[in-house]
Amino acid sequence: MDVDEAYLNSLGYHWETVKDRFKAGWSSTVRAAFLPTKAAAEELRQKVTAGAPFDDTANGLGAAKAGSMGQVTSASEELSPELKNLIGTLHKGELSPPAQAADGYLVFLCEDRQDLPERTLAEVRAQVLSAAQDQKRQRLFADWLDEREKKAAVKIASFYGKWNKERGSVN
């Protein structure tokens, strides 16, 4: 998809909104277990340290869930800052101390870790440009869809209200 010159110039703006994703950080492959008690979490740590398999041991100790979280990075937005900071301290093969969570305790196992250097716009320009193009494509589609909705012949049962053609919604 070709991007016009004005949009290329706006790449700098897009970079400002995403540059935190490219700061120095880490990327880890992590397993997690959610256990009902701190004692069970501590027992999991002891047994896994002695060589027991993580998931099977966690399940045997009453874990509500145990398994892979996949890749977790210092830029992950799915986790609370506290859990992300805890996982960020782990190196390959290390277990976290029990972390209190709602109705139980979490234990993390770092299966692999890679420290990531900070990357500049020059190094990730293709990724940022692709993301900016996707964002523009999505905005253009949303605008097109809004216009189509406004032009659509819509019939609404009076029970639900009246169709507002200008807003493309029911009043």
Can you give a write-up of this model?
By secondary structure, this protein is an alpha+beta fold. The protein folds into two domains: 56 residues; 93 residues, Chitinase A, domain 3 (Roll), CATH 3.10.50. It is built from six helices and six strands, in the order ααβααβαββαββ. It has a four-stranded antiparallel β-sheet. A two-stranded antiparallel ribbon has the order 5-6. The two termini are 39 Å apart.
How many DSSP H or I helices? Answer: 6
> In this structure, how is the largest beta sheet organized?
4 strands, antiparallel
CATH class of the largest domain: Alpha Beta
Gyration radius, rounded:
24 Å
What is the terminal-to-terminal distance?
39 Å
Q: What's the SSE pattern?
A: HHEHHEHEEHEE
Q: Tell me, rounded to a whole number, the average pLDDT.
A: 87
Number of domains: 2
At CATH's second level, what is the architecture of the largest domain?
A: Roll
Assign the structural class, choosing from mainly alpha, mainly beta, alpha/beta, alpha+beta, or little secondary structure.
alpha+beta
Kindly report the spatial arrangement of strands forming the biggest sheet.
2-1-4-3
Please state roughly what percent of the residues sit in beta strands, choosing from under 5%, 5-15%, 15-25%, 25-35%, 35-45% or over 45%.
Answer: 15-25%
Say how many strands there are.
6
